[in-house]
Amino acid sequence: MNRMETPRLRRRLTSRMIHSALACALVLAPGSGWAGASKGNPMATLNDPAASRAERIKAAKALADSRDPQAIDTLVKQLAIMDDGVVAAVKSALRTLNAVPVLERRLTDSAASEEQKVSACTALRALMEKSSMAPLVSALKDQSARVRKEAALALGVIAPAEAEAAL
């Protein structure tokens, strides 16, 4: 190796080390790109199939603490998970966010989509609040068969004896 090759080699090695360090920082940094994409964002963590049970529970609690009403839809989607611990955390977060009145209003909102109304019925069924009876009974008259079905299921879970006449 002559004297001219040494500085060039040093520059190449330094450049490669900087690129490697940047790549590691991006992978390990919470809330940044690549592998850390969902680590700093509770909504993304809940939707991340690779997230652990503990991470999902922590994310649900973080969303409850955020007091962000937009988190309600993200939380409602998680009720379908077959993990009792995650579902319990999601229900608790929905109660903290005072989601029941929001979901009840959605059932009577003519601008709400069929999917939004179905999700509202599903969430109200999981939360089992008797205050939801009236909106769910009115949803039995919805033009969508899916909404009517989910409303009937919710009524049957929340208060079967009281819902019998409406059903």
Describe the structure concisely for a colleague.
The chain has 167 residues and is an all-alpha fold. 26% of the residues are buried.
Which short descriptors sum up this protein?
about 170 residues, mainly alpha, 10 helices, about 70% helix, about 0% strand, elongated
Topology:
Elements: H1 5-28, H2 42-47, H3 53-66, H4 71-77, H5 84-96, H6 99-108, H7 114-127, H8 133-139, H9 145-158, H10 160-163
Helix pairs in contact: 3-5, 6-7, 6-8, 7-9, 8-9
Characterization of this structure:
- This protein has 167 residues and is mainly α.
- The chain contains ten helices and no strands.
- The protein has helices at residues 5-28, 42-47, 53-66, 71-77, 84-96, 99-108, 114-127, 133-139, 145-158, 160-163.
Percent helix range: 55-70%
Rg computed from alpha carbons, rounded to a whole number of angstroms: 24 Å
Shape: elongated
- Arithmetic mean of pLDDT: 83
Number of strands: 0
Amino- and carboxy-terminal Cα gap: 89 Å
Sheet/helix structural class:
mainly alpha
Contiguous runs where pLDDT drops below 50 for at least 5 residues: 21-38
**What is the helix tally?**
10
Task: Give the percentage of residues in beta strands.
Answer: under 5%
User: Largest sheet, described in full?
Assistant: none
What is the helix/strand order? HHHHHHHHHH
